[in-house]
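Bump. Still looking for Pimeloyl-ACP methyl ester carboxylesterase structure tokens.
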Amino acid sequence: MKRIYWILLIVLLAGLLSLPACGPVQRHYEAGLILGDIRAGEEDSRLKRTRPAPERETVNYTGVTGEARVADLYTPGGEIKADLVLVHGFTEDGRRDPRLIQFAETLARAGFRILAPEVETLTRMDVSPENVQDVVDASRWLDEHGDGDGVGVAALSFSVATAVLAAMEPEGQPHIGWVVGVGGYYDLVDSLTYVTTGYYTEDGREVFLEPRVEGRWVVLLTQLDRVPDDDDRELLERIAYRHLDDPGTDTEDKAEDLTPSGRAVYDLLTNRDPERVPELLADLPEPVRDEIEALNLARRDLSDLQAYLLLVHGRDDDVIPWTQSQALLEAAPASGAELRLVTGLTHVDVDPGLLDAWRLLRAVNRLLVLRDDPPAPGERDDL
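Sorry for the wait, here they are.
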């Protein structure tokens, strides 16, 4: 049935294409081709048949503080219309994750020159302030090897915050003109409350939505490096993977061997009472608390953010609630951001029906507007 929905959508777009040529109509048609190619994965699609495959090459460069960096550069077979840094998420395969490769190739067929940097911490399930410098270095390199008019950064989930922070860094501001964030957060404390208890605030009232069961254990893995005790780190890692393999398992007996600081981490991740979250956070080891503070956009003044934000969030997101992108929108400078709320997008997984596909189509269309008329760093004009 969903295949029929997509056929109907493409037929509708083909009809629009037969109208007198104009930019908005052409972009809507192209957005449909992009969504169709994303759903097709490695299979055939109209975009693949009508756009040449991009060239992929490995590039090595040096960061502003001297670190050796490596990335994959995807160059369109046709016209280069915009430069975009694409940050991978939590995956052992890093920039060579098959899903990232497919997505990068889709965007490259649409005219984006893509730089996909290897973010080493993310390959071991660790989100860190260090990731901000990874994004800054990639943006600087791509901008200096492009037309010099600035680049965009696309990030998913927990990496959205690092992209925003990179755009605020003195070394990032001159290069990052716009950020596309899918399923990101604003207040990390509120996000941790949801992922552990299922409760979040919507329009001033407390709402419960069953969170994705593996979410809390992925969060645990991201903080293991900050747990002071070696034995605690090893035991917590075993506990996390045991739950990822078998969500219904009971690990309370294992947790009895943790030190007080390790137990504090475990207690936060197994807590179901939103009222207890503040006290449990206060009991965390200092390195873990410092990490949360450093990555929490709600603790930052975003008034100096110069990059334009295009935020996309699924209303039924069961990892980070859509209200987080709404809060980020409200904290961003006036006329410097927009939010596209969609259905058929479960966190970062796309599986829409016909109406959902139309909303996603409009979100992709906004991305193409940024491609065709990208704001240079420092611009805040409403597009």
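Residues 2 and 271 are 38 Å apart (CA to CA).

Edit: fixed formatting.
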